[in-house]
Amino acid sequence: MTEKLEKIAITPAGHFAPPAKFSHGVKKGNILQVAGQVGFLPAAEGEEPVPAGPTLRDQTLQTLANVKAVLEAGGAAWEDVLMLRVYLTDPGQFDEMNAIYNEYFADLKSVPSARTTVYVGLPGDLLVEMDALAVLG
User: Fold this and answer.
1) What is the Cα–Cα distance from 77 to 79, expressed in whole angstroms?
2) Looking at residues 49-69, what average pLDDT do you find?
């Protein structure tokens, strides 16, 4: 009989509590799923979440930082990511997102094997959301 692996919730320091009953990340064995992250600045005690800025670049760089924080809290790095999904609110920003994405990952030796971009509505002034699937080891 094999031992059942425990699911471990991952919440990095500086992240706001999720707005519903979910975790910023969940690790089970060597799999780490990062829940959808947005471009909120690090949490400040007693304050509401604030986007990193009004531009796609501002929010994308902060979103990537937030995804990276969950990866690191779960013992992973960008090299462990198999899939990074990007959700944009404006299909007109697809080219700009690609440019930011390519610049950010320019030095990454092993890029995620897949990237899907879809267009969704996000609350408030949020422009982008990302989630990631990583396999450690």
Assistant:
1) 5
2) 96
